[in-house]
Amino acid sequence: MLVGNARLMAGSLTMNELAGPAVGAALFVAGTAWPFAAQAVLPALAALLLSRMRLPAHEQSVQRAHVRRDVAEGLRWTWGNAAVRTLTLTIVSFNVTFGAAWAVLVLYADQRLGLGPVGYGLLTSVGALGGIVGTVSYDRLERRLGLATLMRVGLVIETLTHLALAVTTTAWVAMVVMAVFGAHAFVWGTTARTVRMRAVPLGLQGRVGSLYAMGVYGGILLGQLAGGLIARAWGVTGTFWFGFVGSAVVLALIWPQLGHVAHAGEEGGVPSR
If you write DSSP's letter for every residue of 163-181 in order, what string do you get? Predict the structure, then answer.
């Protein structure tokens, strides 16, 4: 499961963060309409491929879906399970601080680091390269450190990332920080997915996973709103100070629970309550 999740993250990272932007830029150079045409054709192709999938028979009979009831059931189960509840609240909180800082990353690259128009692309590219290193190394890291240590070290890295970017004005230092953060981001994503898959019953995987995804993107959206307001009042570095302080507070609160969260779903793991 661990290796499989790492490979899924590597595929997502390679296509979305590295190959995708380059292909999109090449299509735009070929003609402004080509990226939009690709955006129309590729999802249709994906839907066709999914429609041809054949799943194994399940013991449970297929019931008609009720979206509101399913959302409520996923929320109720998540809130009742200590480990998954902590994991979900963690990603929401850290994505608020992440979203606030990354909302002004373009301005940060230009005004703080003096990287010019290509600065943002450089920062995101080194982050993606760090993510490749993290996913390729995941199996070795997990065997040596264990899930709990990976989670703790990763959240410490994310907290210190905000601090480092708040104080540096040197472009190469910022790029090294972004590469390390990129490795953490995809190691964390693999670990969190593995924990959820172990802890959540099969019949609730989709509902709980969807709720988790809502927390991921909802936290980023809230953070971007906060980041714009903070940057207007205190400048672009204010968002990174907000990210550092907010992440440090949340990390201090959840630190004792991370060991239990990492082993949820295993024998002797955290029970639902």
Answer: HHHHH---HHHHHHHHHHH
Question: What residues form DSSP beta bridges with 95?
Answer: none
d(CA 273, CA 266): 16
Residue 273, amino acid:
R
Whose structure tokens read 């981001």?
A: 185
Residue 91 main-chain phi, psi, to 5 deg: -65, -35
Side-chain-side CA neighbours of 169 within 13 Å: the count stands at 3
Tokens of 75: 């929320």
User: Which residue has tokens 């936290």?
Assistant: 219
Residue 272 forms beta bridges with which residues?
A: 81
How does pLDDT run across 179-236, given as a tens digit for each residue? 999 899 888 988 888 888 889 998 888 889 888 989 999 999 999 999 999 999 999 9
Domains of the chain: 1-8+118-262 (1.20.1250.20)
Distance separating alpha carbons of residues 187 and 151, to the nearest angstrom: 9
Distances (CA, A) of 32 to 20, 42, 95, 155, 180: 16, 17, 33, 40, 35
Furthest CA-CA distance within the chain = 60
Output the pTM of the full model: 0.79
